[in-house]
C-alpha cells in the first residue's frame, strides 16, 4: 500500500438508510478510500452508487475489477460479486460463497486487514445476522480500527450487535457522525514520511 487509508463499510437490511446518512457526512477532502458492501439480491439493478452519489461530496462509483484504490472516492460492490483488495487495486470475484452472502462483508474486511493493516478501518452498519463480525475482528487484530453503528439506532441491529460481540471496544457511533470520526482519525494518523525512530510520531 502507498499509505492511503482504506475504509470498508458493510451493511444489509436497513443499510441504505444508514449509508445515506454516512455519505452525507463525508468531507470533500477526506484523504481515505472507501469500499462499500451492501447485501443485495444477485439480480438487483446496480443503482446504489447513483443513489449515494447524489448525497455525497466524494465521487461514488460502482467498483470494477482492477480499479486502483484512490483517496477521495467511494467504490460500491456490485450484486453477486465479492469485493476485495489486492496490491492497491480492487478485485471482484464470483468465488463460492464463504457466507450466506455475496458480496460478503467478511471477505472485504479480511482483505483490508491483510492489505492495509493499521491503515484499515471497518464499519458495520444495520443488518441481520452476523456478516462482518469476524472480519472486523481481523482488522483490529492487524492494528486497524473498528466502528459500529449504535444498535439502538439501527433499523436491524443484528450485524452491529454481532460485531460488538467480537469487538467490544469498537467505537459505537451513529451513521451521521461516522464522517466526522473518519476525518479526525485521518487527521491524527501517522504519516508515511514521519520518522518513527526520530520522535516525530506521537501516540
Automatic annotation (TrEMBL):
Domain CheB-type methylesterase: 1-189
Domain of life of the organism encoding this protein: Bacteria
Record bears the keyword Signal: no
Regions crossing the membrane: none
E.C. number(s) listed in UniProt: 3.1.1.61
Pfam families in the record: CheB_methylest
Catalytic activity from the UniProt record: [protein]-L-glutamate 5-O-methyl ester + H2O = L-glutamyl-[protein] + methanol + H(+)
Matches recorded under InterPro entries: CheB_C, Sig_transdc_resp-reg_Me-estase
Signal peptide: none
Catalytic site: 12, 39, 131
Keyword Cytoplasm: no
Keywords, ordered alphabetically: Chemotaxis, Hydrolase
EC class name: hydrolase
Stated name of the protein: protein-glutamate methylesterase
